[in-house]
Amino acid sequence: MNGSFTSKHFTLEKVSEHVYSAIAKEDGGSGANAGFVNLGDKTIVFDTFNTQQAAEDLKILAENITGQPVKWVINSHWHGDHIRGNQVFKDSQIISSNLTYSKMKDTHPTRIKKQKDDIEGLTNYIQTLKEQLTQNGEMELHNQIGFLMELKLSLPTLELVLPSQTFHDEISFYGSERSAKLFTLGGGHSFCDSMLYIPDEKVMFMGDLLFVHCHPTFFEETNPLKWMEILKKIHTLEIDAAIPGHGLVGTKEDITLLTRYINELCLITSEGLTNKNIKVPDRYKHWSSPENYIQNVTRIVEWKKITME
Q1: 69-82 pLDDT, tens digit each
Q2: When you count CB atoms within 10 A of the terminal residue's CB, does the N or C end of the chain come out lower?
Q3: Count of domains for the chain
């Protein structure tokens, strides 16, 4: 194994002396960002991507660069693009919060079986997209096709591997040269979101609590108020680099930007606006995934109705 190895699924970036981020390529099998930390004599991997082939590349690079096996693997939350590569790390200790474990166990077996049973449907859908690509040549279609082809490739051998250890509030990891702390402040983006803080490096892996220069994804479980509370607490920590679940590596400024974004969404949904007259503000137009903006407005409207009942 040499240092020139690159992955079709992600771009590896050295964030600090001992921390690396793996930034997802849109046409690969990653689906979301991941990364790893060298604690001296032990290595931690944070999240395992959407496919086992992307996870395999991450494992190769982590072991090649650190010169040792991966000791611990973190699942930041239960969403598939962060945990479906777990099977590559069966020999490591996979860790998540209690709630993340429960959601993975309850939800993914059915989801994965449904996808495995409909590979033909996925194949037909990919072919339809390829025909559209021939007509208009849009890069977004190219990326979507690449991602779905990697998903199709993963399905025949995909298996759900659950965490072997869980924690409630926080857990610390100690290596011969530095330490890291895995902790959760509850749910914001998902039912429960965990972060990994490396104080000596002043780096935070934030999972999907942070999106950098791309519109976040809100789900039925998303709680915008708790999300903002978490971001404000994280902002008080000593952080030079914040590794998001989606987008490029950011800073505290990006944490502030996302907090403002969520707050603005909460404000406009209080003004009785409908999807027809909602437009992406100019300051967010350069962010990727602009289609998420209106979806997020709809989610917050639904969330407000539920919380007011």
Answers
A1: 999 999 999 999 99
A2: C
A3: 1
User: What mean pLDDT is reported for the chain?
Assistant: 94
**Tokens describing residue 126:** 């990919």
Going from the C-alpha of 82 to that of each of 100, 104, 271, the distances in angstroms are: 11, 11, 35
Q: What is the pTM of this model?
A: 0.94
**Amino acid (1-letter code) at residue 293:** Y
Helical residues (DSSP H) of 5-118, grouped into ranges: 52-66, 98-117
168: nearest Cα among 182, 147, 148 = 182
Domain assignment present for residue 113? The answer is no
- The H or E element spanning position 146 is helix 139-154
Quote the DSSP letter at residue 231.
H
Place of tokens 């040549």: 137
Residue 127 forms part of a structural domain: no
- Single out the residue of 37, 16, 47, 22 nearest to residue 174, CA to CA: 37
Beta-bridge partners for 179 = 174
| Predicted local confidence at residue 271, as pLDDT | 64
